[in-house]
Amino acid sequence: MEHIYLDHAATTPVHPQVLKRMCEVEKETFGNPSSVHAFGRKARQLVDSARSHIAKRMGANEKEIIFTSGGTEADNLALVGVARANRDKGNHIIVTAQEHHAVLHTAEALEKEGFRVTYVPVDRQGKIAVEDVMDALTSETILVSVMYVNNETGIIQPIQEIAEQMQHHQAYLHTDAVQAFGLLAIDVRELGVDLLTVSAHKINGPKGIGLLYTNKDVQLQSLQYGGEQERKRRAGTEDVARIVGFEKAVELAVEHRIERVEQYQALKQQFINGLQEQDIAFQINGDEQNTVASIVNISFPNTAVEALLTNLDLDGVAASSGSACTAGSVEPSHVLTAMYGSGDEHTTNSVRFSFGLANTPENIQTATKRVAKSVTRLTQSIR
């Protein structure tokens, strides 16, 4: 049985060109980038070059890029680093109710440090209102964090509009762009954000590497103690191979963005059409016209998500109920709860399907039949 991967929002297969480049570096460049001898200088050159090329492709200055171990660390650094460094200006932070747990749990931790956090709601279409963010701002607000694309629903948030409205406020604007990068055109200057998070493994790069774009004017406190790497903002020896792999993944994602978006959108539409042809009941969660090409979140009435995911896995289809970080949890989706309210059936019968380079029209056709089979099996058992 062919196993079909429909969980690209959780992680993506590493692109062959990325693997090739990383292997070359692992074989040929093992020096510590902080060493002054020839081996170290060679490694440093690769890190600096990668930083410069990645920065250029997102409209940033190379000095504004901080390499991290991934999206979670970048989000933590953005929130905690800004909060602690700017406490003299205020103690209020704004996030949305549907953020990734890397932001939500960090915000909760900051509340224990004495910071006040406002959680902005989303509507039933999964979108926040710019007015709600602006209404939440106070003279004590030092940071606003709104994810660019929701990881469970794929809904795109109005980041640029928020940035425009916040131009004359002291608060910094951070966006977790992990699910947006490579699918949406991102220029940090045009977008107007002060901080932005990217993770390599979401764009067919390696796990364990990400970045935080930090505008040169942002006051940020480091979270780690050690050496003076990353301009004293993130101590620890740089992982040269992963950084170079990240660079290659960014290059491919940016250069092939339009064709990838067209490909993923076609696969998603084929999947939806296929489910309709199988004549099963389902509803798409969120505004279909305001999502990225790669993600669709679907509610299947009279099913339970845990049982459905198990059946799908047995039938060779990999999908998820939302964030991979909570894949083992039986709790209702906090994203869908924010959209529909606690206790609503959508929060316990919805599955996220996400498309990418591992998919073809042929395996999508097979997947729709298997999904329909699993849904029918479960709904008939309930009856």
Automatic annotation (TrEMBL):
**By its UniProt entry, which InterPro entries does this protein fall under?**
Aminotrans_V_dom, Aminotrans_V_PyrdxlP_BS, Cysteine_dSase, PyrdxlP-dep_Trfase, PyrdxlP-dep_Trfase_major, PyrdxlP-dep_Trfase_small
Tell me the enzyme class: transferase
- Family annotation (PROSITE patterns): AA_TRANSFER_CLASS_5
This entry's Gene Ontology molecular function terms read: cysteine desulfurase activity; iron-sulfur cluster binding; metal ion binding
**Keywords from the named record:** Iron, Iron-sulfur, Metal-binding, Pyridoxal phosphate, Transferase
- UniProt cofactor(s): pyridoxal 5'-phosphate
Q: Which reaction does it catalyse?
A: (sulfur carrier)-H + L-cysteine = (sulfur carrier)-SH + L-alanine
This entry's Enzyme Commission designation comes to 2.8.1.7
Q: Where is the Aminotransferase class V domain?
A: 4-365
Superkingdom, natural source: Bacteria
Signal peptide limits: none
Q: Which one Pfam family would you cite for this protein? A: Aminotran_5
Family per record: Belongs to the class-V pyridoxal-phosphate-dependent aminotransferase family. NifS/IscS subfamily.
The protein depicted here goes by the name cysteine desulfurase
Organism field: Virgibacillus chiguensis
